[in-house]
Design a protein that fits this description.
This protein is mostly beta strands and about 425 residues long. The protein is built from two helices and 23 strands. It holds the Pfam family GSDH.
Length: about 425
């Protein structure tokens, strides 16, 4: 076990298919950083009852690594459904004025007003390959959006011989009807003829750099590239906002290593967020069993497909894989059965004081919003909210008003606003 996973990191500028086999193949399936935080004891508590694990032979490498204590919010929440008329939404990004940018998997980006009015598609978005899990995926405001109106988005770029994840940026016009001066700033390599595991979350770090999460494209023949340094597959990427490679990236001067790579050995990351201490946390989709919460560190290897808590969808072991191995970083936490994580947000608002510093994760398979209490880089409590709505949650983001905004994964997708009940 790597102790570096278990200690607090200083803010040094480093910086969510695990549904079921059928789901994945059909649709995809804080506290003050200067103040020490006491860890809540794990005794005399019960985890959330999620049934028997898929891989009962896999055992945690340390206490509390899975099935943490169930916690329950004391604040009653109100769910306002802003609209039910989105077409397979994938991401939501609150704008400073209270309106919301939403991407739709088929290739449309729209603005939804704070009252739920859906705008026309924003023009200027490049063509996407929307087969399988592909399409128009994440969207993020640039670090200087207030002055330059720059937005960034990830998408499945159709290419000769297949496709891959690409990231573009452009200026949102003053009337917000189009994007202008569009530039493709990153193209994952290699191109591959497949329809799964594009990753695609975008997160700007406190260092001003853009972090891009990528999948390993799932298929058995390309999966090993998650461990190969001449491939972007199964990696987290770090680039400057203009697409240039920072000189302090860990592999920038190593022969046959792609310089954009920040970390290695990921399966399919569709959930990523920075906390108030500047740490990058990801929640990645495992195979059958083995969704992982990882604290990402520069240059580290997170194991896939050599190290995993999960198994193949057939029920067979992942070939030549083990649960833990020297030289690979153990996950901070894992789920078995899986939640199929997509979208992540550390809560920093004032609307829900008891949620301060908690990590929220959208659950596709879990059909709810997962809340994690993290103390001393360990998960000490877990809650599954909104389960009564039976909806696959694709993304979660916090607005300037302290509300959480969620989009659901369905043909007639919904946009929800979560606030305390009055």
């Amino acid at each position: 076990m790597k102790l570096s996973r278990l200690i607090l990191m200083s803010a040094i500028g480093i910086a969510t298919m695990g549904a079921s086999c059928s789901e994945e193949r059909a649709t995809e399936q804080e506290k003050d950083p200067q103040e020490p935080v006491a860890t809540t004891p794990q005794e005399d508590c019960q985890p959330i009852d999620r049934g028997a694990p898929n891989s009962p032979e896999q055992k945690p490498t340390f206490e509390g690594q899975t099935r943490a204590c169930e916690i329950k919010s004391e604040t009653a929440i109100d769910v306002q459904v802003l609209t039910k008329n989105l077409k397979k939404p994938w991401a939501v990004e609150p704008l400073p004025d209270g309106n919301l940018l939403v991407t739709e998997k088929g290739g449309q980006m729209r603005i939804v007003s704070a009252t739920g009015q859906i705008g026309n598609p924003i023009t200027g978005i490049p063509k996407v390959d929307a087969r399988g899990q592909g399409g128009l995926l994440d969207v993020a405001l640039g670090p200087k959006f207030g002055s330059d109106r720059m937005i960034y988005w990830s998408y499945t770029e159709p290419r000769q011989g297949g496709n891959a994840t690409s990231v573009a940026r452009g200026v949102l016009s003053e009337d917000r009807s189009r994007v202008e001066n569009v530039q493709v700033i990153f193209q994952a390599q290699p191109t591959y003829d497949g329809t799964m595991h594009y990753g695609s979350r975008l997160a700007f770090g406190p260092d001003g750099m853009l972090y891009i999460t990528l999948g390993e494209r799932s298929d058995i023949e390309i999966r090993p590239q998650a461990q190969q340094m001449n491939s972007h597959m199964g990696k987290i990427i770090r680039i400057a906002p203009d697409g240039k490679v920072p000189n302090d990236n860990p592999f920038v001067k190593k022969e046959n290593n792609l310089p954009e790579i920040w970390s290695v050995g990921h399966r399919n990351v569709q959930a990523a967020a920075f906390n108030s201490q500047g740490q990058l946390w990801i929640v990645e989709m495992g195979p059958q069993g083995g969704d992982e919460l990882n604290l990402v560190e520069k240059g580290k290897n997170y194991g896939w497909p050599a190290v995993t808590f999960g198994e193949e969808y057939s029920g067979e072991p992942v070939p030549n894989a083990v649960t833990t191995k020297e030289g690979f970083v153990d996950p901070v936490y894992y789920w078995d059965p899986v939640i199929a994580p997509s979208g992540a947000q550390f809560y920093t608002g004032s609307a829900f004081p008891e949620w301060k510093g908690n990590l929220f994760v959208g659950g596709l398979r879990a059909q709810g919003l997962v809340r994690l209490r993290i103390e001393n880089n360990r998960v000490t409590g877990e809650e599954h909210l909104l389960r009564d709505r039976d909806q696959r949650i694709r993304d979660v983001r916090q607005g300037a008003d302290g509300a959480l905004y969620l989009v659901t994964d369905q043909e007639n997708g919904e946009l929800w606003k979560i606030m305390p009940k009055q």
